[in-house]
Amino acid sequence: MGKSYAEIIMPYKDKKGGLIEAFHALQREFNYIPEEALKEAARIFKIPESKAYGVATFYSHFSVEKRGKYIIRMCESAPCHVAGAGEVLKALEQYLGIKVGETTPDGKFTLELCECVGQCQAIPVITINDDVVLSVSPERIPEILKKYE
Amino acid sequence: MTNSIKDLEEEAEVIFLIGTNTTENHPVIGYKIRQNVLKRGAKLIVADPRRIELADLAEVYLPFKPGTDIMLINAMMHVIIKENLLDKEFIEKRTEGFEEVKEIVEKYTPELAARICGVPAEDIVKAARIYAEADKAAICYAMGVTQHSKGTDNVKAICNLAMLTGNIGKPGSGVNPLRGQNNVQGACDMGGLPDVYPGYQKVEIEENRSKFEKAWGVKLPDRKGLTLTEAINAALEGKIKALYIMGENPMLSDPDSHHVEEALDNLEFLVVQDIFLTETAAKADVVLPGVSFAEKDGTFTNTERRVQRVRKAVNPRGNAKPDWQILCEVATRLGYPMSYQSPEEIFEEIRSLTPSYAGITYKRIEETGIQWPCPDTDHPGTPILHKEKFVRGRGKFHPVEYREAAEMPDDEYPLILTTGRNLYHYHTGTMTRRVAAIDQHKPHNEVEIHPRTAQLYGIKDGDMVRLSTRRGSIKLKARITENIKEGVVFTTFHFGEAAANHLTNASALDPVAKIPEFKVAAARIEKI
Amino acid sequence: MNGEKRILLEYADKINPEKAEDYIKVGGYKGLEKARKMKPKQIIEEVKKSKLRGRGGAGFSTGMKWSFVPEHAPVKYVVCNLDEGEPGTYKDRIICEKNAQALLEGMAICALAIGAKKGYIYCRGEYPHIVRLLNNAIESAKKAGVLEDFDIEVRMGAGAYVCGEETALIESIEGKRGEPRFKPPFPGVEGLWGVPTVVNNVETFACIPYILTHGAEWFASIGAPDYPGTKVLTLTGDINNPTYFEVPTDYLLSDVIYKLGGGIKGGRKLKAVQVGGSSGAFIPPENIHTSIDFDSMSRIGASLGSGAVFVLDETRDIVDVATRIAKFFEHESCGKCNPCREGTFRMYEMMQRINAGRGSEEDLENILVLSRVMQKASLCGLGQAAPIPIETTIKHFREDYMRKLM
Amino acid sequence: MITLTIDGKRVTVPKGTSLLDACRIAGADIPTLCHDPELSLAGSCRMCVVEVAGRRNLIASCVTPAEEGMQVETESEAVIEARRIILELLLARHKLECHVCERDGDCKLQDYCYRYGVKDSRFKGEEPHFYKEDPNPFIERDYDKCIMCTKCIRACAEITGAFAINLKNRGHNAVISTAFDLGLKDSTCVFCGQCIMVCPVGSLVSKVEKGRGRTYQTEKVRTVCTYCGTGCTLELKVLNDRVVGVNSIRDEKLSPANRGALCVKGRFGWDFIDSPERLKEPLVRKNGELMPVSWEEALDYTAKRLKEVKEKWGSDSIAVFTSARTTNEENYLLQKLARAVIGTNNIDHCARL
After folding, report:
1. What transmembrane ranges does the database entry give (chain A) (predicted)?
2. Which of B452, C118, C307, C315 is 20 to 30 A from residue C268's alpha carbon, by CA?
């Protein structure tokens, strides 16, 4: 067993407004914010659970639903869109056998859409957790994902 | 209340809550206290054996053992005197008897109190400092303070604390009992007490008596009467033969129901005037159907002494009659004709005999109720009592000593049972148990138990348990919660089928107020 | 030469941005040193005189912004906006990657000018590596002693474009939902945790050390007179050279495309160019001979914004691109105010309809009315700007829309 | 003091006055959905926008301070267009079922659509899909009618302090929600119904009142709550001689103890009035059973028995319990009856219980 929710959250307790930082820390550990962890965070930061939940559901990087080990985000902002994001997405769905918003049955990959990640020098772009993958094409997908399998 | 509800929201800088679960029993006042904390940064001190909701917002939370109020408050005074946090000017100019109190509290060290009350000494010190250092500190209390065999002493101790720090007679301060029923203030104001006429004019004072004799045109008894609990005991002894009960349900509200039942059974004649066939009405010889608040005109006086208009919205249901009309009919048939045409006419008589109500008229309170005392029709009413001086002149310190509750836990009954209400139900449930939505939401009584206590008896959340005292036992569901002190259990008296007052102690009365010790009874619990 | 002028990026890839010593070696922290010898008011005057205007998009005078901060407030904050979320924009990332110390120095100078002891950098959640870089840079600067008692903390966003709006950004630092506040009060008076706060963009802060070091006159003499200095641009779309550049602000948009960008891919013709990210106006080819500075762009109904330049060639389906942009705003609206929450949603719906060939002329008219109301009545810049790309494509490329209608 | 011109009328207001208040002082009727004088400002519905000379955008008057010399137009073409479009946008996400809606005739969306002639929405498309059944017995939540004014969230936090609800998600997917989107029963909700009180549309309604009569059909009677000692003012809604609901009165003058705030008992606990268990006839015990009798019989019998006891055992053999739940007048009469008629001071009530 890894660290308890409280142990993960506590380092941010005295950071004013540190709830979002604590959520990041939880996500680094679990890739989503488990319900009990969110309750723990609300308790530690002395804010109502309804508010903590409101914050967790506002930001697109946070999820209150369980997600895969690797979160693949496909940028579909206008520059990536014209650079062929649509085809890449189709290829990703096909390769993983899931639709956007879903997680592979083995719990490995979750596929999400996102907006511009600020790596527009070589597009289309996907991110896999913190990694940025530039100049993605449908053909490159098996090779890219191999690293994570 | 010496002060107004609004003070708790907009004036008080510190609020000391003792023996009041405000958000459940006086929810709207609870909201106001909470908003004062959230919006204005008021500090809360909460002293209660149960971790009430407001404890979450408290600077200091003191989960003290039921029945140790005086120990706690005397220790706070000890700290205040020792650290010289008292209001010398106020004590000198406005009070008397300080030296005696000072002498008595000398021995109430925080360390002693910590042992007896079961809270850390440093928290007692902290609470004392917060309360004493504030410019405007209010104390609120409710039945958690009064329903003890030493309830009157508890209140005296609270008054001592307020006077010690000059927290009387100014905005945001005061000693503020939160009254539990819509018109309990009014019932007292109107002389619904065995020793006083309306306006707290003592029946044993000749001058008062002759005033009322003149007004009512009859000779009046010169000795004070029996209190409710005394009357029940007297009925049991055969001294009270007939009882006329209007809108009360002693079968559920009074301690030790078996005892009440025996007493009622022992009567020659029982009349009950009510809107439902309550547990008490079911025992009556005559039941007279009165009406609810929606079917009659009149006034209620709230906890801040505000006299407000109650208005008839619908006609009496069936053949029921407004209670005032029933009383007129009964009086007339007893040979004393009463022919009031309206509640307003009765109110006019009230204000002619009650100096504190003298300036209040229906016309004046058409929009906004007025807080008594209101001696004349030009007087705006009194939001804060004891502003310039106390009614008796100087405020008197009453030294009080701690004594144990009448019934302490022992091997046979190792727990302390304390009783009260919850948010959803009211008093004996006569009305709220008949509100479909509320009864759907909270249909059963529960007993609150600390997890460690529960573990000791092998009880899990939701288990049915038998809760017993020397008076009897009831069956109800267990609710495991950390919001109660270990060794203490709590239940409500709303439910006839699991009535807390089968269990409570009727023999331990406060010597002055004759208030029963609802808040402390030795109990035991077992899983069934 | 292609006409680039590198001030912020002069030592790009020649120094380690994390290391204060590297930066000091090339003249860094001289501005701060100078500022320490000046009175706060003098610093603000100097910045005012430089005519530096905010590089985040609104183009407000930086010196003026600083001067609104009440002198005597006991606590104040300096906040750096590193939430660049405009699609096609990555210039703040580049400035950090190449010259992070200049940002820190700029913030420290601002802190001196307004009397703040603490600064925050709000970095978008998409740049975790920049958070690490900045934390190292701060540590290095602290070690070097250059920041003295000024403390900087980096906070990370979590995927919300709206947090680029300064008050939403403040809410987010406070650990809340990133919903914009109404203004007034402006952050300069009531900002982070209710105290006076200056919020500036990375690029704005990074200009400050150079203004202090070389003087306001020097800075004011570069580029367009009313919007002087340089601007870092990022090029995307159908362009041969999709990368970043730093140019003087009087640089022509046409030169950006054809000189810096190396022209349109495959030698095709230009269809349109969108400047400033997704909230920018689309500019038809006939208007590209315009200087990129704030005011010149305004004159052609566009805005410089973040400095993103998104180029579309003649083969592109502009309705499809506009539909995609409508989705962006639908996704990024915070949902607080009615015109934006419902407007972006319905706008996207109508655009989808048109793009799929199911739209009518009525839809087009409805889009224009909605667009007008969103621009005038939305609470923050997001909702006000969201309809601009749609509106400008309808204005300049109406026939493309007409072709797609039922 | 500040002087400004509103719809051609010069008004002088204290510094710090909101433009909304200034407009209202000038007699302009400004529509609002999210504004509530008792709650923090949101500035989000944008219905209160006005046109101020020299400003590019329309100004939300509720969150903008009035300034010296402002030239304000409250019903300019641009203002009316904005309000109409906002209403149409809201209508497109609002489940339109006024014919069965509790709030028909008492709905701000309806009122403003009427005022601005908004018959239908040109933005109709995807229908709202926010409804989720909440099985609590008190509050019905239909967010398919929600217009996102967020007054319920603010009332929950700023009046009651329960913090049961907040926003979930963002943008068009944003919806009022408890933590983890659970039912109110499983949240920190205390069922005070302050959310119902502030809801401008039919999104939040009392389940207890449902179907019993619309506000405009009812007569309102201001009175005092019958439960605890706080003395909250409430307004009973009456239809055909039955109480069918409870309203809050938010005017401090009329509602000094509670300013409209109520608790679950006050707001939802009134239907005992018409409980079938109500006593409707006097009862007298005959052969051990309580039997319905006429008032004459019951009263005569009561008087007869009391007289007998008094004659046989003396006045002090009788005790009277008056009631902390009846009126002052009734308490006065009963103690008078005890003292002057029966001749005993044996009178008390459950003040201490």
Report:
1. none
2. C307
